[in-house]
Amino acid sequence: MTTSIDLKEFVFDRVLDENALAHTLAVLGTLPSSTTPFEPLRAIVRFERTALSATVASQLSSGILESTKQIGSTDIYSWFFAWLHKRDDFPDVKIYVICPATEVHIRKYTKQDVLMVRESPALYQSIVKPYILAFDPARTQWVQDILTGTAEASNILNASPDFLILPDMKWDTTNVSTLYLLALYTHSDVHCMRDLRKKPHLGMLKKLQRDAWRVVQDKWGIGRGGVRMYIHYQPSYYHFHVHIVHTGHVGLNGMAVGQAHLLDDIISLLELDPDDGSSILERMTFTYGLGTEHGLYKPMAAALAEVHDNVD
Amino acid sequence: MTTSIDLKEFVFDRVLDENALAHTLAVLGTLPSSTTPFEPLRAIVRFERTALSATVASQLSSGILESTKQIGSTDIYSWFFAWLHKRDDFPDVKIYVICPATEVHIRKYTKQDVLMVRESPALYQSIVKPYILAFDPARTQWVQDILTGTAEASNILNASPDFLILPDMKWDTTNVSTLYLLALYTHSDVHCMRDLRKKPHLGMLKKLQRDAWRVVQDKWGIGRGGVRMYIHYQPSYYHFHVHIVHTGHVGLNGMAVGQAHLLDDIISLLELDPDDGSSILERMTFTYGLGTEHGLYKPMAAALAEVHDNVD
Q1: A141, B74, B250, B283: most buried by Cβ count inside 10 Å?
Q2: Looking at chain A, which residue has its C-alpha nearest residue B95?
Q3: What is the mean pLDDT of chain A?
Q4: Other C-beta atoms within 10 Å of B302: how many?
Q5: By CA distance, what is A8's nearest residue in B?
């Protein structure tokens, strides 16, 4: 079935998501079915604009431009629209098709409204902690596979008793300017940032940072300060881990304030904690965005609506 | 001179910056000069891929696709490269030209290496605070013009004795999903986040937040939790201000952890401060990225190299 897709037969229904910054567009519609001619199949079509390469610029004088139209100019500045000659090695768009698409696919590709929620220590105890403890262990089986050496064993860059450092799946492992590594904690006492404490964890976090600096220096010649290390809250899985990303790699969604917390900031907060007593990570209210499809969205939205009603 | 630019005469020299996520490319080269034929002018040419609109998807069946090439498929997924018919209302790229370009322009458009620096309270006192106090007042004249009512008076959305809320210059003021407002503090005792204290400022920050929620609710129907409010450290100017951005507007560079701090998190930290004594905002070490052209880059890089030498 997949081999017979003719995109010209796509019947447009509605836009699911449009991202002008990322130059992507996801739409829902239908494609004809070869087995049930009167029941077309639902299809998601996702368009992504192809990126420009330096070739475009270097070939301006050798005729890559088909035509240009000056839009405006002032002083030393001018701006144009331009149309390029068609080239076999430079398509206009990449297109990704899911057909037949289920409700789950449609939800996944639909832009979610994001609600900023304030998680007080009380809401953490009553809503978030139970949610974390009930998280399906099958969803972190891949972490266990890495920790036990069943998977990714040949990719481990640094192994210490407390954590492993390896390339993140999102990285192509070749382009250093988009370097993305993952540090996985080997123990199971830290589900998330809220569980970190000065006495048992501060030394481990500092060692993790030093080891990460050494790995990127030794392997890719990146100096100290050349990577950004951060922790997600809420993370996508509740086994403690740290993201290690090249400082030149910007614009990632997962780097946004409210979801990402710098490892350095967490270290600084723990350093200021008293040696005993509750940690500031227990006492703080953390604010983050939740998409409407997130498992915490409904309970947190309901709890906060109640809080607001009482305050207003 | 600007009217005579013919991009086909551009001679490529080198790439200044390439951003695959944002689909932009800035290059340096030369364009012929009409007055000095043997001395071509240096020119910066910045390409930006045009965004896709829903029109593209809705017109698949009416022949917007010139050709497609299937790249792969598996199960219900398939992916293609596609070439579109040329349309006068849909250029391939927008091009922005600066000619003649100076060294300052070239630096501005050149990708800067970013160094993560850890600003301890001691480094704040010895390097950052003097830098802030020496900041040229002419660079914040525009803030004074707004505060005194000389500029933007008709755009003020909310005025209170302590701050003004108005649309940020980066916003087109029409597309609600990219809403971007600015709250400007009316007094001059807070240069940056480090100056905030519980007693004089906590109440003001909470009122600012409530007022911002009310403005976006009344004017655009955005519910509480529908905007992200954050503070930059380092900011681009040292008069205290807060960014108010729609939660759906993601991928902005200024929203990255390390530069952006949620107003909610700052409020939470101040709430946990004792009523007297030093604030955690004075005692914390803050970590952020500095581009090589930032005024703090050289002194901070030098100071940190010394710290590292002593530790290693």
Answers
A1: B250
A2: A80
A3: 91
A4: 10
A5: B61
In terms of average pLDDT, the best of A89-93, A193-197, A302-306 is: A193-197
pLDDT given at position A310? 65
Non-local (6+) Cβ contacts of B196 within 8 A are B190, B205, B240, B266, B270, B279, B281
Q: Please, is B26 exposed, middle or buried when counting C-beta atoms within 10 Å of its C-beta (0-12, 13-18, 19+)?
A: buried
State the nearest Cα–Cα gap between A239 and chain B, in angstroms. Answer: 21
Question: A201-223 in b/e burial notation, b at 16+ Cβ within 10 A?
Answer: bbebbeebbebbbebbeeeeebe
Where in the sequence of chain B do the CATH 3.30.200.40 domains occur? 2-108
Please tell me which residue of chain A has the smallest CA distance to B64. Answer: A8
Beta carbons within 8 Å of A168's beta carbon, 6+ residues apart: A180, A181, A182, A243
* Shortest Cα distance, chain A CAs vs residue B306, angstroms: 13
The 8 Å CB, 24+ separation contacts for A254-257 are A255/A228, A255/A230, A255/B256, A255/B257, A256/A289, A256/B250, A256/B255, A256/B256, A256/B257, A256/B260, A257/B228, A257/B230, A257/B255, A257/B256, A257/B257, A257/B260, A257/B261, A257/B262
Mean pLDDT of A276-281: 91
Sheet with B65-74: strands ordered across? A11-19, A24-31, A41-49, A93-98, B77-84, B65-74
Q: Give the active site residues of B.
A: 241
User: B61 vs A228: CB contact, 8 Å cut-off?
Assistant: no
pLDDT, tens digit (0-9, with 9 covering 90-100), for B284-304: 999 999 998 899 999 999 999
Task: Choose the closest CB to A45 out of B57, B63, B256.
Answer: B57
Min Cα separation B184/chain A (Å) = 21
Q: Over the stretch B118-150, which tens digit does the pLDDT of each residue have?
A: 999 999 999 999 999 999 888 889 999 999 999
Based on C-alpha coordinates, what's the Rg of chain B?
24
* Interface predicted TM-score (ipTM) of this complex, two decimals: 0.82
Task: Kindly report which listed range (A87-91, A284-288, B179-183) carries the lowest average pLDDT score.
Answer: A87-91
> Is residue A86 part of an annotated ligand binding site?
no
Class of domain B112-311: alpha beta
A242 known ligand binder: yes
The dihedrals phi and psi of A280, each to the nearest 5 degrees, come to: -65, -25
Is A235 annotated to bind a ligand? Reply is yes
> What's the token pair of residue A56?
């475009």
Question: CB atoms < 10 A from the CB of A250, how many?
Answer: 19
- Residues in A 149-168 with any Cβ partner in B closer than 8 A: none
CB contacts under 8 A, B 217-276 vs A, are: 223-228, 230, 247-248, 250-253, 255-258, 260-262, 264-265, 268-269, 271-272
Please tell me the class of the B2-108 domain: alpha beta
CB–CB contacts below 8 A, A to B: 318
* pLDDT score of B229: 98
Euclidean distance between CA atoms A263 and A261, whole angstroms:
6
Q: Are B241 and B184 in contact (CB under 8 A)?
A: yes
Q: Are B270 and B201 in contact (CB under 8 A)?
A: yes
